[in-house]
Amino acid sequence: MNIVTTFEEARAARRGVVALVPTMGYFHEGHLSLIRSARTGADTVLVSLFVNPLQFGEDEDLDRYPRDLDRDASLADDAGADVLFAPPVETMYPVDPATRVTVGSLTDHLCGPYRPGHFEGVATVVVKLFAGLQPDLALFGRKDAQQLAMLRRLAVDLSFPVRVIGRPIVRERDGLALSSRNVYLSADQRRSALALSRGLARSAMAALDGERSATALESIVETECDQTPGVDMQYVQLVDAQTVQPIPELDRDAFLAVAALVGTTRLIDNVHFWLDEGKLTYELGERLDRATILGGN
Prior knowledge:
The protein is of the alpha/beta class. It has helices at residues 7-12, 29-41, 69-79, 89-92, 118-133, 145-157, 187-208, 214-226; strands at residues 2-4, 18-23, 44-49, 83-85, 137-141, 163-167, 170-171, 231-240, 254-262, 265-276, 279-283, 286-287.
C-alpha cells in the first residue's frame, strides 16, 4: 500500500475502476468493512484520512479527536487498500476557503440544528475529494444516514461521475454502533449508550408488527433513552430516506434516527426501513462476533 499526501500523488496511483473510502481515521471495523467492500468492486481502493476542521464546531472535539496514522495505515493495508491519502491541512486548504458547499433542506433537520456548519464542512471536503481524486465509486457507512443522503444528492446535483454507495452499520457485540468517539466513553457510559440501539431495535420490531405511526415509533426510542440514566436525548425522528424530511407515518423508504449525549460524548444511531409493494424490511446493521479493535465489548 502506498501512503501519499498530495492529490497529484493519489491520482498517479489510480488504476482502472477507483473506489474511494473517505474517513477521518482512527479506524474501527466499520471503516475496514467499507475498505473490504470496496476491494470487491474496484481495481484501486483509495482510502482518504483527513480530520476535517471545517466540520467541527467551536466547542467540539477537533483537538482531541483520536489520531494514529501508523495504526490506521497498518489496518488499511491489511483490509486491502492500495493507497492511503493522508494530506496535511495545508494540502486540503492552502488558503482559507472562500467557497463552501451547502445542500439545502437535507440538512435542516436531525443533526443540522445541533451542529451548525457541520454539513457544510462535510459537503465542502467531499467535493474536494471527488474533484481531486476522481473516484468512480465512493463508499460511506449508513450510521451517518443524513450525511449519506446529502452526499448522494450532492453527487447528482453537481454531476459528479461517481456512484455513492451506502453500507450497513457495524455494531459491537452488544449492539452499540461503532464510532471512533466510543473511546471517550467510560464503562458506565458505555452501558448507558446501549439505550439507543435497544430503542431502535424495539421500534423496528413494532414496525414489523404493523405500527406505522411516526409518533409511536419515535416514542419507543424516546422512552428507552429517558429511562436510562446518563442519556440526554437530542432528537429522535422518522424521516424520508431521500429528502431527510420528517414524515408522519412509515409509508415509504425511511430511516428512524436518534442522537444523544452520553456524558459529554455525542452519539448517533439509526434503523433503515424499506417498503417494497407493501412489504416492510429493516436494517439495523451487522454485529461483530468478537471484541472490537477499539477495545470495547
